[in-house]
Structure formats: C-alpha cells, structure tokens
C-alpha cells in the first residue's frame, strides 16, 4: 500500500469512527426521548373539577365559609362516600340554610298545587295547618318535618279555616309516600328554600344515577363520585353564608345547578385527558420509530468502521494469516 492510499484509509477509519460516535449519541438521545415519552404517558391523570373551580364558576368567592375545627377534610371524607352519603350532605345543606327562616313562617297556605293531593281533598289558600298525624305544628318547618319523617301513604291533617277546625287526609297514590314535595301544600316561603326529607334524599340519589352517573364511562365513575363528594362536603361550610339569601341573589347555591356544573366539567376533563393520552401515545410511537432508525444507523456506522479498519490494516492482517 502506497503512502497516499494508506493516508486515505487512515482518515476513512476516523470518519467511520466519527459516524459511530454520532449514531451512538443519536441512539442515546432517542433513548432519552422514549423514556420521557413513557413518563408523560404514565403520568397522565384526569384533572377532575375542584371546589375552587366550582366557586369561581358560580361566583362564590365573596361568601364566607368558616372551617370547622376537628372536621375531616373533604378529600378524606369523600374517599369512601356513597351516592347516598353525598345526598345526605346535600340534604343537610338544604335543610341547614332553610330551617331558621322556615321556623318563623306560620303554616298558612298560600295555595295548593292544581290537581295535587291537597287540591283533591278541598284544601285551599288561606287554610292553616294545625296538626299533622295528631302532632301540633307551629311553623312551616314543623309541617315539612312531620310529612317527611315517616313517609306514610296517608297523612291526617287538622285544618283551621275561618276559625273552624276540620280534618282532612292526604293520600298518596299506590307505591308512593306523602312528603313535603308531593303533598301539594304551598306556603309563602322564601324562593329556593327547601326541606329535604329522608325519602326525598333516597329519591334524589336514585335520580342521580339515571340522570348523571350512567352517562359517565364505567372506568371513571368512581372518580366522578369522589369528585362530586368533595364538592357536596365543602358545601356544608357555606350553610351560614346562605341563610340570608334567596334564589336569584348573587352567591345563592342551587343544587341542580351544582350537579349540572360538576357533570359538564367532569366530562370536559375526560375529553382533555383522552386527548393528552392520545398525544403522549403518538409521541411514544414516534420516539420508538426514531429508535429503530438510530439502531440501523449505528449498525451501518459500525459496519463502515470495521470495513475501513480492515482496509487500513489489511496488509498486516493478511500477513498474520
């Protein structure tokens, strides 16, 4: 081999070695990309709606919500909360903000629901409820409590009309029970205030499954339930802030609005999560494709290096043979 050829082969060896180094760096870089893409994929978590987002959406920032000393955090309380427990908290919230004002309202009817139980037995506006199932009542709250605490199919009322007393029986259709909501009795109470009895709480929980829970993909239902439980539990600290508000006032919390907001926000969170997972998956597949290219490049560079090395040292190698 002459000097020029040997010099050329020497540089060819170093060029090939350079390609090996560069492809090795490329392979390491792609490996880091794969690791990063894998981490992004496994780190994807659903960003469930929070109570802070709920406060902002419903403009509750101006309301005072004192923390109860010794009370469990909402996250802790929500861990194993059932749908029944969620609506027990909802009932506690509704009853807590309404009770003081309903105690001050005399049980005088402002009207009856047309065609309802009370209307069918001749009760009318201006009548005063004196007793329910033999127990005297002094306020609208007493009436609601008596109607809801037993959930009976027939409830006996004593009514005062123009100073005279008479008895009347509210009778629920077969399969139903009389409660404050379906009795047909209307009182002059502040708009939006309700008393939720045990039977109504159970009914709300059952309606929730049909109206909301069944619309959520099965794999997300547990997290959906926990997310809603946090909001329901947090509402308890807002009872005092609601005592002087009526529906339509800034900051008045409507439960149906709260349920709808949570459902819509959670469904959006699922859509965003699916999109992030799709993006992370595409990144991981792209990184794996680059890894294959890097392997091929490294093999080619190593082949070039060994060929160049053999060519540069072929006389020595052949001599040894």
Structure description:
- This protein has 321 residues and is of the alpha+beta class.
- Among the domains are: 3-44 and 275-320; 106-188, Roll (Pdz3 Domain).
- It has 11 helices and 6 strands.
- The strands form 2 sheets. A 4-stranded antiparallel beta sheet has the order 3-2-4-5, covered by helices on one side. Strands 1-6 form a two-stranded antiparallel ribbon.
- A hairpin with a 2-residue loop joins strand 2 and strand 3 (135-136).
- It is rod-shaped, with a radius of gyration of 37 Å.
Percent helix: 55-70%
Distance between the termini: 17 Å
Shape: rod-shaped
Strand order of the largest sheet: 3-2-4-5
Strand content: 5-15%
Estimated radius of gyration: 37 Å
What do the pLDDT scores average to?
83
Contiguous runs where pLDDT drops below 50 for at least 5 residues = none
Q: Main traits of this protein?
A:
321 residues; alpha+beta; Pdz3 Domain; 4-stranded antiparallel sheet; two-stranded antiparallel sheet; 11 helices; 58% helix
């Amino acid at each position: 081999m002459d000097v020029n050829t040997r010099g050329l082969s020497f540089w060819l060896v170093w060029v090939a070695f350079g390609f090996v180094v560069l492809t090795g760096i490329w392979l390491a870089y792609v490996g880091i990309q794969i690791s990063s893409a894998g981490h992004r994929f496994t780190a994807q978590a659903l960003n469930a709606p929070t109570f802070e987002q709920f406060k902002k959406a419903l403009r509750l920032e101006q309301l005072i919500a004192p923390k109860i000393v010794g009370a469990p955090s909402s996250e802790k309380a929500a861990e194993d909360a059932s749908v029944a427990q969620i609506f027990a908290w909802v009932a506690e919230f509704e009853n807590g903000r309404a009770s003081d004002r309903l105690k001050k309202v005399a049980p005088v009817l402002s009207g009856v629901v047309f065609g309802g139980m009370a209307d069918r037995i001749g009760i009318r506006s201006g009548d005063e409820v004196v007793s329910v199932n033999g127990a005297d009542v002094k306020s609208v709250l007493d009436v609601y409590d008596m109607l809801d605490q037993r959930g009976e199919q027939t409830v006996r009322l004593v009514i005062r009309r123009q100073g005279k007393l008479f008895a009347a029986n509210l009778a629920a259709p077969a399969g139903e029970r009389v409660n404050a909501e379906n009795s047909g009795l209307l009182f002059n109470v502040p708009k939006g205030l309700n008393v939720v009895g045990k039977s109504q709480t159970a009914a709300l929980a059952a309606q929730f499954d049909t109206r909301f829970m069944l619309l959520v993909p099965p794999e997300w239902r547990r997290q959906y339930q926990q997310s809603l439980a946090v909001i329901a539990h947090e509402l308890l600290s807002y009872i005092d802030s609601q005592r002087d508000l009526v529906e339509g006032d800034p900051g008045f919390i409507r439960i149906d609005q709260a349920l709808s907001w949570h459902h819509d926000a959670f469904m959006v969170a699922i859509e965003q999560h699916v999109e992030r997972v799709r993006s992370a998956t595409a990144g991981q597949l792209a990184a794996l494709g680059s890894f294959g290219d890097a392997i091929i490049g490294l093999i080619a560079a190593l082949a070039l290096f060994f060929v160049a090395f053999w060519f540069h040292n072929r006389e020595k190698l052949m001599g040894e043979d």
